[in-house]
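Hi W.,

Here's what went into the run:
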Amino acid sequence: MNLSQHNTLRLPARADRVIQVDSIQALTEITAALGQAPRCILGAGSNVVLHAPLAATVLLARLMGRQITEDGRLTAGAGEDWHGLVMWSLGQGFAGLENLALIPGTTGAAPVQNIGAYGVELSDRVTAVTAWDFQDKKLVRFSAGDCGFSYRHSIFRDPAIQGPWDQPRYLITEIELQLRPMANAQVEINYADLKSAFAHQAQPPSAQEVADAVIAIRRRKLPDPNDIGNVGSFFKNPMVSQLQARNLSLLHPDLPQYPVDASHHDQCKISAAWLIERCGFKGARRGDVGVHDGHALVLVNHGGGTGREILALAHEIQQAVVAKFGIFLEPEPIFLPHH
Ligand SMILES: Cc1cc2nc3c(=O)[nH]c(=O)nc-3n(C[C@H](O)[C@H](O)[C@H](O)COP(=O)(O)OP(=O)(O)OC[C@H]3O[C@@H](n4cnc5c(N)ncnc54)[C@H](O)[C@@H]3O)c2cc1C
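Here's what came out:
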């Protein structure tokens, strides 16, 4: 089966079989039927590069349902659309997810890379993750602390815990978040783009206003995968030591640097987009793939591109950035299959 409709880069990789998983009962049956046969999990395919055929059964995580208690404890099924969940929670009168509006994909994939944007990460709001354990054939509940969250990382993308790409141990079925009633919620608007969006407003914005601003900024800056195939940021912003950051800023005063959380006080994040742009890749095209002309961090499929071409371009960019700045850019999306 062709997976081009199941990944936002619109790569035409094939899989042996695709099954929708919409209940725990279905998971029990699938586990028994598949045994040790290769399997692989997909949400909406907005953070994967399908660069070769997947010799596996693809399980589409589609467990649905969402509810929120009076004190803001939100529970949502893995198959819920993430942006839909954000807007629904705001509509229910709860703040906390507004900075994460318009991130494509499913709720079940959100913990996998600890999604983050505009100064907030999922790990700031999540309290627990429930997953189906294919090995022990039962549901397991992970506290937020068990999930090993860090910048674009969690145990669910750690091969030492999750296993090889075609034998993933855990399929996330549900997540729990703690939100705050809007009336007494403080919003996070320290991120530069948001700060300037509200610079002329005397009152602090509401959570809904922050969501509206985030949506407007994202629409302006990022290409819509419905218009042109992409997976958002293709590389993580590299972390460097404070010393290296100081040396870099002496050489390149306009290189954007971002603070990291308190546990990494000796480190600093620098802009991958700036590094790529300085290597001359913004708007570059190689056959039917390229770098978006509005955002150097976004690799795009102009239509007939293949996963192999995307990987070749990513490699070319990595080599150029190492040669010019001595910095290795780590890809953000997950390559499937991987070795
Ligand atoms: C335009 C654009 C903008 C983006 N902006 C951001 C952003 O601002 N911040 C950010 O963090 N990300 C961003 N992303 C990346 C992407 O939206 C997120 O990583 C999202 O969480 C992926 O969800 P998905 O359902 O598409 O996951 P998929 O791409 O289908 O899967 C991603 C990984 O998670 C695994 N997985 C999926 N579902 C489950 C499950 N239920 N259980 C276990 N494993 C699972 C898959 O096996 C795969 O390894 C962006 C992507 C695009 C296209």
